[in-house]
Amino acid sequence: MTGVITPFRQFVLKVHSRCDLACNHCYVYEHADQSWRGRPKVISLHTVERVASRIAEHVKQHDLEQIDVVLHGGEPLLAGHERLAAISTALRTALDGLCRLGLHLQTNGVRLDDRFCEVFAEHGIRVGVSLDGDRAANDRHRLFASGRSSHDQAVRAVERLRNRPELYAGLLCTVDVANDPIAVYEALRDLRPPRIDFLLPYATWDNPPDRPSETAYADWLIAIFERWQADGRPTSVRLFESIIRTGRGEPSLTEAVGLEPSTMIVIDTDGSYELVDSLKVAYDGAPATGHDVFHHALDEVGSHPGVLARQGGVETLSATCQECPIVASCGGGLYTHRFRAGSFDHPSVFCADLFKLVSHINDQTKISPHTVSFSSLDSLAAGFGGAAEIELLANAQRSLRRALLAALRPKTPDRVWDMFTRLDQHHRDALEAVLAHPYVRVWAVECLQADGETTYLANVAAAAMIRAGQDVTLPVAVAGGAVYLPTVGTLRGVDGETVTLVAQQGRVTVMREGAPEWHAVRTVTCGDFSLVLEDADPYRDSHQWPAAGTLSDDEAAAWQDAFERAWLLIEKEYPQYADGLRSGLTTLTPLASAGHDVSSAARHAFGAVAMARPADPAMLAMLLIHEFQHVKLGAVFDLLDLYDRSHTGLYHAPWREDLRPLEGLLQGTYAHIGVTDFWRTRRHAVEGAARDKAEEEFARWCGHTVAATETLLASRALTSVGERFVARMRETVTSWQHDA
Fold first, then answer.
1. Residues 590 and 613 sit within 8 Å (Cβ to Cβ)
2. pLDDT digit string, tens, across residues 262-286
3. Which of 160, 166, 156 shows the shortest CA–CA distance to 123?
4. Which domain holds residue 180?
5. One GO molecular function term (predicted)?
C-alpha cells in the first residue's frame, strides 16, 4: 500500500475551533458545512500526541526529509500561550531526528502580544496574518460580532512581527473586487511582508461569487500585478510567482494553480482527518473522510477518493480543462471552485478569470507556456485547424513578439520605450494590432541578428498611438523616401533618414517644409473579412520572390475583385479552411509577376501570405489555402520540436528535383495537404476539361504527399510528437486515395 500513496507533507492542525471575529466571508462558519459546532473548542494534548505519533509514523514510512505543520483554527491564538507551547513541544519531540519540521501559524492577529511572540520564537514558529488591505477593504468583512473594526489590532500585530523578522511569514488577503486593488496592494506592501497571498473567495458554481463583470477577479489581480511589476516586485506574491513558475515548467507554490498533486491534509480539534478546508463551502460533510488519528494511519486516509482526486494531475480534470491551452499553469484552479450540483468534474467557477490572468502574466513575463492539447495537435496535423487552434498559435506568436521587443529594449530610446509602456497599460489592443503586423517580427529578427539600429521601433510606437486615437510627435525612420507606419499608412515624398512625425487629430505629417503625401494602408475585403494589402512595408521583401512595388489604384482594384471572388469560393467550397484563415491571416502581399503563379510564406511573418495575382480567382483561393498551411506549420515549429534540429540529412521531395532538408520536406508536405484537398474538392465543382485537370492534379498531389509522409516517417529524425503529427498527416491524405 505504501508504494501507491503520495505522502502528505503539509498538515493543517486545527488547535481551536472558534474565532473572535465574525468575518462574513469565512468558509468555516458562514457556509454549508457547520461541523465546527460539534467539535471541541480546543484540541486536547492527548489528541495532539496522537497527531504527532501519526505524523512521525508517516515520516518513517516514506522517509520524508521535511514536513510542515500549520497551526490553524478558527483562531489559533484562542488556544492560549501555554497550549500553543505544549502543542509545539509535542510535535517537535515526536519528530526530532526524523525530519525537519516547519511550524507555522495563521492568525487574524487581534490577540497577538509580546508573550505569543516569545512562544513563537522559542519554538521556531513563523506567523502569517490575515489582512484584507487598507481599513476600508479590511472592514468590509473582517469585523468583530459587534461590528467593530479589527484593522488597527491586525496592523499592530504585523508591526510586532516586523520587529521580529524571523517570525514574520507574510500576509493573506481574500480578494473582494469591491475594494480598490491598488489601495489594497499598497496597504499590504507598506507592511513589508516577506510574502503576500491573494486568495480568490471560496465559491462554487452553486454559490457563485459576486461578479460585476465576466473577468472582474482577473482584472482586479492584473491591476495589482502591473503595479507589483512596476515596483520591481518588492515582495513575493505567491499566486503571481506560481503562474510564472508553472509557465516555465516548474512546480507551483500553491494549490490554487498548477498540476502538482496535493500533499496537504487537515486534522481537526477532535483528531478527525479532513480534506482541504475550503470544501466546507460546497456542502455539509464535504471535507469529511471518516478517518481519525485514533483509528487510522495517514496512509489509510491517503487512499481516500477525495485525496486521490487532488493528486491525479490533468487526467482528473474536466474535459474542458484538459483541452485548455493554459492547463499546465491553471491546473483547473482550486478543487473547491469546481463544485457544481454534486460533482467536481467542472472547470473552476473562476475559469474566465484564471484564463485571462494566466495569459496576461505569461505575456508580461515573456513566457510562452502555450501548451497544445493532443486534440488540437491532431486537428492541426490533419491539415486543418479551426478558429480555436489558430488562436492558440496566434497567442503563442504574441508572446514571441513581446520577447523580441524585450530583447530590443537595451537599444531603444527611453522616450520610445516609455511610449510602449503607456500603450501597454492604456491602449493594449492598439499596440497588439500593430505588433501583430507580420513584418514587424521580420524586422525585429533581422535587427537582432544583424545588431541593427532600432529607430524603426519609433514607427511601430507611432502607429499604435495613431490607432489608439492619440496625438504624437516623434522622430521616426525614413526608408526609400517614405515613412511607413505598420497597419496605418505611409507618408511618401520624405527626405533624409529620420524625420519628426506629427500626428494630431488624425492628420499625419512631418515637421519640415513641403507636403509629403499621406497614403492610408490598403485593404481587400469581402463581407466582414478584411486583409491588409501590403504594398508599402519596407520589410515585406522577405519572400522567395521579390515583392511588387507600390500598386496603382487600378491594380489595387483588381486585387480587391480577385480576393472577393476567391474568398466567396473558399466560404462556399472550402469552409473547412475558412475559420482558420479568418483567425490567423491578416496580410496579403503582392509579389512581382514572374509570368506564372508564384506564392510564398516567410518563416517569421506569421499572418502573411504573398503571391503574384493569378488570373483565375480559384487559383487565388488555392494559393491562400496552400500558403497559409506554411504559416500554420511555422507557428507549430515555434511551439514544438517535431524533429531533431541537429539532423543534417537530405531527402527527396516528389515535387522537386533537388534534395530537401527535413524541415523543408515537412513544410512542403504539410502545405500540399491543402493543395491535394483543393483539387479533391474542385473535381466536383467544375465540368469538362476543367474537371479532367482537377482529377489529374488531385491524383498527382495525393500521390506525392502520401509518398512524402512515408519518407518523413522513415527518416528516424522525428521526435515522438513529430511522429504523431506526421502520422496524422498521412492518415488524412491516405483516406483520400480512393476517394471517388
1. yes
2. 899 999 999 999 988 878 777 887 8
3. 166
4. 173-261+313-371
5. iron-sulfur cluster binding
